[in-house]
Amino acid sequence: MAQRCLKCLKYTMCLANLLCFMCGVAVLGFGVYLMVNTRIPLTPTLAKFSLAHILMISGIIITCVSFLGFLGALKENRCLLLTFFLMLFLVMLMELSVACLLLIYDNDIGEWVEKDLTAGLKKAKESPANSTEVMGEWDLLQEKFDCCGVLNVTDWDDKVPKSCCKSKCETPKPPYREKACLETMKNLFEANFLITGVSVIILCIIEVLGMCFAMTLFCHISRSGLGYKL
Question: How confident is residue 174, by pLDDT bands cut at 50, 70 and 90?
């Protein structure tokens, strides 16, 4: 009976890690697609660390960890199972650390976003008129989130970019976007805060179950004297 339960646990772990591996490949592929076709920056000074990069990093971590778990369970390899356990433990520690930092500095997120946007706008205003590297990030941000400036269009002084216009900027008084990018970014962070917290809790539960399964198989292999059999 015990052997049947362990076999069931083994193949359940194999199936779960296979599904996680496929999800990781999908996330990685979607991240590559976003990087090639479009960029959605978090803030102007963090434009290089976009949603595409986050998805790619997450996809790589998921595929590597799930592959170790699948192979370790399938081959009943103690070394792979222990590595899988340790990697899951480290990932869970990182997630909990980030979640704790977000909870501790929840009230400071708005101030950080404001400072980041202000610094990015100042850099964009001081850049040469033909420089597209800095202005390109602001153009992308303002077009994606339908906003203009940190507080309003007056933040740009006499260097109002075309991305602030709702339609054509050639008219004497072009219609500018009314939303402030600061307010839009704050609402974005606040709207996703609860979803992020719930996701971290669910991930931690799954990771704890994965660690329990891995350690159960590890102990069974040790008692059976299979050693590091491949």
Answer: confident
